[in-house]
Structures are given as structure tokens and as C-alpha cells.
Backbone:
């Protein structure tokens, strides 16, 4: 199972192993990692599951869909080149070692 | 400082989470009428019925969350009474909980169908996880399914039953489906998609009775005109009624829901009501409404939590909603009821378009099907100060996003 590290807004790091196919959102919620709201339950409707992927990973993740891209315009914390919606990214073997940072605010 | 939240649905859960997230230091007790972990409802009529998620996966958060956040979850022990004078609530177990602030988030329950036969085996409804599991189990084996009620939930169930291979009939009493919440144009489009999949949609169908097969199992539906629809599974989805009995018994004012002000506070300053059970005033002196959506529940919860923490910012969120039926991913922004003109943007025949609903020059709401970008722009348009003309709405070359951005209040420096 690929290991993913979540870094909270205050810098605390937590590494968890996630089953392939799990979304980064579910991976965080199931492991009690704070900082994700996910109001719409992963339907790409709410933008409260925003994360920043570590720089090294920006290019290595599957591209954003148009909808994800649009929705990222409505995040509570600033959007950057590293911004993604964690409900739209599924864990795969290629993502072993992924590091994502949680934003200050989601709502 | 103690806050008691009654009901652990979308509103109650979010209220507890937001209070903690914003630094509330008092005790929080979240009283859930149902056993088990608090859960989300949208997947119950969608992914769960399609076998794409499990009953465990619909929980908002694992049990550890409540412990970590210091949220006292009391599951399966409903509140039976509120004593406003003494400021405490009583639970079914006999426990008494004092409160400084009380949040009523009791939601709603299914409206019952007042005809003979609703207690037959094979007659189901859908609101709770338990009901969803029962329905998911039966859908696999059902050969013919009658869905009574052509609202969102009825139609989502119809789509799932159809995809499980059953012969499906939707019986709607009104002259169109989803009449309360979508335009005739969007309703006709989505209904057409159901029909293309082989589902029969009966409009103006008045149910007289559910029929017994002689062994206590349902055999079908009899309509008032004497016709019959054969079915070995009947799903009743004729809307909901807000759960207001507690508030009523406590002497709080009701008006199709628990009456609250623009802060979601009832006439008792220590009591708030949020979500499906709350009748609240629309911003800018608008009418009092009661809405049934996740957005409404969660945004209400945020406003009430902020209020408990001392904020006085009134509620003014733009409503949004979604429903998935067959290939139609429908998203609605605003409230379209009362519109007098519907302007289409996009290609109806391709099944990806939006309906802009105007009353006079006011844009009331936008319904999008498989057009999520329109939906997101519409949410911004409705929240901002842009006036959109019908021509701009209809012209696919007009940039909605840019128009919406132009109408946004200036970012706070
Ligand atoms: C099958 C289904 C699909 C849906 N799909 C969508 C969708 O796609 N999009 C969308 O936006 N909305 C959808 N909705 C609507 C949405 O789920 C509701 O608007 C939302 O759940 C309202 O939240 P709430 O907390 O106000 O009420 P509820 O979720 O109903 O929660 C209220 C809770 O209070 C509890 N309660 C009641 N009385 C007491 C008491 N005395 N003591 C303790 N607890 C009590 C109840 O058991 C219940 O768990 C759907 C609803 C259903 C049923
Ligand atoms: S959970 Fe709502 S957009 Fe990701």
C-alpha cells in the first residue's frame, strides 16, 4: 500500500498507508487527519477538500479535470500551482511517497 | 459553557465540527437519535444503491474523531423534551443534559402515504442508512419496482432500480416531476432520459391503494382511475415533513418549520434551529423558506456556530443542490421557484446545458445538467452583484466566469 504523508497547516507530519484506489480525501478522513471538510462527500461540488501537493509531485499527478480546475477558484485558502482537490485524486502505486500539505482554512 | 446539539445529520455534525474548528472551548454534546456513527445521506440514494460505496464508508468521520475533538456523541438516545426555563434537555434513557446553548438540528422524516397497504412486505421508504441498506438488498432481486413520487429521491431510486435490471414505473401525482424545485424544461429533459432507459413515468397518477399478493407481500399499486401497476417492490418517496415536535412542545414558533431569524436563532436567544427543520428568512428581506439540502444544512451550521461564538453576521449563502440520475448530473444554484422565463444555454440534444431562470430581470437560479462550469459560474453570479441579461445567459460565447468575477465584492485587503 502506497505511503502518503499529510502535513498539517502547523507543520505536523503524518504518514499513512492507503489502499490503491482510495482518494486522498478519504485517506485523510479515515486516518483522523484534520484539515479536510469535504462537505459534498467527494462530488466535486464544494472545494472544501483542498490540499497543496509537494512541489516535486505537481507534475507527477494526473492532470486536473476542467471541473476541478474551476472549483479550485473557490477555495477558502489561496490557490497556488500546487492546489488540488483531494477527493479527485486516487492513490496509485505511482504515488508512493506523495506528500500533501493541508491549507489553513477550508470553509 | 455547554452546547447541546439535537440531531447528528449534516447540520448537527457540521455544527459540532465547526464549533471546535473555530476554537469553541465549552463542552459539546451531539445527541443522535440513531445508533451508530453519524452519516451522510446523499450517497444513500446514489452510490450505495449502485453498489459503489458501503454502509461504513458513508460515515462523516470515524469514531476517533469525536473523541479527539471532545465532542460527546450520544448515539441512539434521542432527546424527548426541552425545558426552556431550566435550560436542560431530557433523553430517552432518562439522562438530563443542561445547556447554555441548544441547537435543534432534528431534520425531517418521510411523509407517509395515506393509503391502505403501506405496511405490506416490500413497501420501503428511504431516509436513513438502515432503510437504504434494506432497499439496496431488495433492489437486486426485484423484478418490477413502482416508485411513488417523482422528486429527486424517487427518481434517483428509479434510476438505480432500472440499472439493476428491474422494470420501473414512477408514479407522480403532479403534472411534472421535481415540480417543487426545478423548471419544467429541466424536469422534461431528465424525465426523458429515464424514459429512454425504459422507465415508465406516469404523471398525474393518484395512488388509491397498495395491493396485497394474498400473502402479505406487495403485488402492485392501484390508482384512483382504477388502473394498476404491477410491482414486487414499492418505494414511497413523497417528500418529507420537518421534525418539529420537540420545538413545538417547547412552545417555539412554527411556520412550516422552526421559525428562526437571519442568524438561525429562534425567539429563545439560547436556542438555534438549523438544516431541514429550520424556516429562515432569505437575505435582503426575502420570504421565509425551509430548504432541504446538504449545502443549506452545512452553511446554516456554520452561521449558528459563528453566532454561538459571538459573531453577528447574518446568513446569506447562495443555495446549491445536486442530483445524479442516469447520465444526468444535475446541479442547481439559487432557487428557481417563481421564475417566469427560462433561458437555455448550451446544447439540449447533447444532454449538456443549463437553464437560466429569470423573474423579470432578476436571475433567480440556474440549473445545469452535465455542465459543471456553468454551475460554478452561476453560484458566483448569484452571490455577487452582476446583473446578467437573457442574451448573455443564452450566448455560449459570453464568459460567465468573467462576468461573475466582475460582480464580486472587492476582495478584503
Ligand atoms: C436519500 C437522500 C438523498 C439525498 N441527496 C441529496 C443530495 O444529493 N444533495 C443534497 O444537497 N441533499 C440531499 N439530500 C438532502 C440532505 O441529505 C438533507 O437536506 C440533509 O440531510 C439535512 O440535514 P439535517 O441535519 O438538517 O437533517 P438530517 O440529515 O435529517 O438529520 C437530522 C437527524 O436528527 C435526528 N433526530 C431527530 N429527532 C431527534 C431527537 N429528538 N433526538 C436526537 N436526534 C434526533 C435524526 O435521527 C437525524 O439523524 C438527500 C436526502 C436523502 C434522504
Ligand atoms: S469533497 Fe467536495 S469537492 Fe472534494
Residues:
Amino acid at each position: 500500500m502506497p505511503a502518503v504523508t499529510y502535513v498539517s497547516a502547523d507543520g505536523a507530519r503524518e504518514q499513512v498507508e492507503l489502499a490503491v484506489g482510495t482518494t486522498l480525501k478519504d485517506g485523510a478522513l479515515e486516518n483522523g487527519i484534520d484539515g479536510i471538510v469535504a462537505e459534498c462527500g467527494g462530488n466535486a461540488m464544494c472545494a472544501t477538500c483542498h490540499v497543496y501537493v509537494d512541489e516535486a509531485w505537481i507534475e507527477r499527478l494526473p492532470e486536473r479535470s476542467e471541473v476541478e480546475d474551476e472549483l479550485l477558484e473557490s477555495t477558502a485558502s489561496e490557490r497556488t500551482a500546487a492546489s488540488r482537490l483531494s477527493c479527485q485524486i486516487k492513490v496509485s502505486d505511482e504515488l508512493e511517497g506523495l506528500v500533501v500539505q493541508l491549507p489553513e482554512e477550508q470553509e | 459553557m455547554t452546547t447541546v446539539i439535537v440531531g447528528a445529520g449534516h447540520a448537527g455534525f457540521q455544527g459540532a465540527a465547526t464549533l471546535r474548528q473555530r476554537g469553541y472551548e465549552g463542552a459539546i454534546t451531539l445527541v443522535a437519535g440513531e445508533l451508530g456513527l453519524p452519516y451522510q445521506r446523499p450517497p444513500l440514494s446514489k452510490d450505495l444503491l449502485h453498489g459503489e460505496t458501503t454502509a461504513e464508508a458513508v460515515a462523516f468521520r470515524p469514531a476517533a474523531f469525536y473523541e479527539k475533538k471532545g465532542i460527546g456523541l450520544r448515539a441512539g438516545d434521542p432527546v424527548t423534551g426541552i425545558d426552556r426555563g431550566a435550560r436542560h434537555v431530557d433523553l430517552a434513557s432518562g439522562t438530563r443534559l443542561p445547556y447554555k446553548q441548544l441547537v435543534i438540528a432534528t431534520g425531517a422524516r418521510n411523509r407517509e402515504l395515506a393509503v391502505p397497504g403501506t405496511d405490506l412486505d416490500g413497501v420501503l421508504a428511504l431516509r436513513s442508512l438502515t432503510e437504504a441498506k434494506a432497499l439496496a438488498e431488495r433492489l437486486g432481486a426485484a423484478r418490477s419496482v413502482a416508485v411513488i413520487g417523482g422528486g429527486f429521491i424517487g427518481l434517483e431510486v428509479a434510476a438505480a432500480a432500472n440499472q439493476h435490471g428491474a422494470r420501473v414505473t414512477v408514479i407522480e401525482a403532479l403534472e411534472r416531476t421535481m415540480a417543487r424545485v426545478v423548471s419544467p424544461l429541466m424536469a422534461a429533459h431528465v424525465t426523458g432520459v429515464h424514459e429512454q432507459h425504459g422507465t415508465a413515468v406516469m404523471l398525474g397518477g393518484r395512488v388509491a391503494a397498495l395491493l396485497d399478493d394474498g400473502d402479505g407481500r406487495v403485488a402492485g399499486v392501484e390508482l384512483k382511475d382504477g388502473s394498476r401497476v404491477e410491482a414486487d417492490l414499492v418505494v414511497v418517496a413523497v417528500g418529507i415533513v420537518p421534525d418539529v415536535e420537540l420545538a413545538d412542545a417547547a412552545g417555539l414558533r412554527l411556520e412550516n418549520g422552526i421559525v428562526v431569524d437571519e442568524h438561525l436563532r429562534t425567539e429563545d436567544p439560547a436556542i438555534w434551529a438549523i438544516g431541514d427543520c429550520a424556516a429562515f428568512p432569505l437575505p435582503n428581506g426575502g420570504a421565509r423558506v425551509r430548504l432541504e439540502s446538504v449545502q443549506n444544512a452545512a452553511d446554516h451550521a456554520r452561521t449558528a456556530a459563528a453566532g454561538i461564538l459571538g459573531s453577528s453576521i447574518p446568513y446569506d449563502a447562495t443555495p446549491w443542490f445536486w442530483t445524479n440520475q442516469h447520465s444526468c448530473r444535475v446541479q442547481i444554484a439559487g432557487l428557481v421557484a417563481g421564475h417566469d422565463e427560462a433561458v437555455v444555454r448550451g446544447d439540449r440534444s447533447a444532454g449538456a446545458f443549463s437553464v437560466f431562470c429569470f423573474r423579470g430581470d432578476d436571475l433567480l437560479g440556474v440549473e445545469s445538467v452535465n455542465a459543471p462550469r456553468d454551475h460554478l459560474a452561476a453560484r458566483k453570479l448569484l452571490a455577487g452583484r452582476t446583473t446578467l441579461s437573457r442574451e448573455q445567459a443564452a450566448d455560449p460565447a459570453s464568459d460567465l466566469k468573467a462576468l461573475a468575477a466582475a460582480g464580486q465584492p472587492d476582495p478584503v485587503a
The domain at 3-101 of chain A is CATH 3.10.20.30 (Ubiquitin-like (UB roll)). Residues A 25, 38-40, 42-49, 71, 85, 87 surround FE2/S2 (inorganic) cluster (ligand 2) (CB under 6 Å).
